[in-house]
Amino acid sequence: MAKALNKIEPDWRGQLGGVVQRCFSLAGLSQKEASALLDRDPAQVARWVNGQERPQFDALLSVEVLRSPLVIALAEIAGHGVEIETTVRMRRSA
Length: 94
Description:
By secondary structure, the chain is mostly helical.
């Protein structure tokens, strides 16, 4: 099974890299800031973004501030049948 994971098509890797970059952008983080939060070498994170290496989604999900942005970024590439809606709710203090 590991061999199958390593044979991801190059276009798909690039798309996943775009998801990672979009995740950082939605979180308001630079790639360098995200690398520090992820406790990963900036060069490794750059390889994720550039599509040279498969992103470590478990590491991305382990950082709370990246969870929602990652889900949104993945939903944006999901395609047909997925609709993204943003809702803002505010409560007034009494």
